[in-house]
Design brief:
Elements: H1 12-22, H2 30-48, H3 51-54, E1 57-61, H4 65-81, E2 89-92, H5 105-111, H6 121-124, H7 132-135, E3 143-146, E4 159-164, H8 170-177, E5 191-194
Parallel strand pairs: 1-3, 1-4, 2-3, 4-5
Helix pairs in contact: 2-4
């Protein structure tokens, strides 16, 4: 593993997230996912939510389907616990994720993972009735969590911030980050919050 350099602006949490993601584990611990979700929601609320007349959106790029499921469950849990009305998340991935993909049994309880259930984007987005790209358009949905699907080739002009939880490089990096390039009236700034890639 490469050595990790910290600076005054790097918090201990960022350092821990970097180590966890550098290990390349798709079985990222639920505590780390929950800490990232708390950071993302706080950052979004303080810096992004008011942009574009309250219609700015975010994308969370995860390292795989199991991580995407954990992020979605953590988002829903945090939103419910804090009674948040201004933010709602969708998750997009292909196929299904079975319970053995989530790691140790004692970690599953933390996010409320049902060990008997197969997770799909359909049962994780129960209020969605159609194509998730169209569902993401209304202002109630502010965050799209992705695992490859929609990471490229997805055009949402109101996308203002991307939270990267996956290593990207070369063409994949260009295509991923290009999701932010679409113009929209009043959109004059974009953000990339990168949890895993080297500067």
């Amino acid at each position: 593993m490469d050595s990790i350099k910290t600076s005054d602006s790097t918090t201990l949490s960022n350092f821990i997230w970097k180590i966890a993601d550098d290990l390349g584990s798709t079985l990222i611990h639920p505590t780390i996912v929950s800490q990232k979700v708390e950071f993302i929601i706080d950052h979004f609320t303080r810096n992004i939510a008011g942009l574009l007349n309250g219609e700015a959106k975010a994308m969370v790029v995860t390292g795989g389907r199991a991580q995407a499921v954990k992020y979605k469950l953590a988002f829903d849990r945090y939103i419910k616990q804090h009674n948040l009305q201004h933010i709602k998340a969708l998750v997009a991935f292909s196929g299904k994720v079975e319970s053995q993909s989530f790691g140790k049994d004692d970690e599953k309880d933390f996010l409320g993972i049902d060990i008997e259930k197969e997770y799909t984007e359909y049962n994780l987005n129960p209020d969605a009735t159609g194509d998730l790209r169209q569902e993401f358009e209304p202002s109630e949905y502010r965050v799209m969590i992705v695992a490859n699907k929609y990471q490229t080739g997805f055009n949402q002009p109101k996308l203002v911030v991307m939270y990267l939880g996956k290593k990207v490089s070369g063409v994949e990096a260009v295509q991923t980050l290009n999701r932010l390039n679409w113009t929209y009236p009043g959109k004059d700034v974009t953000y990339i919050i990168d949890f895993v890639n080297d500067p």
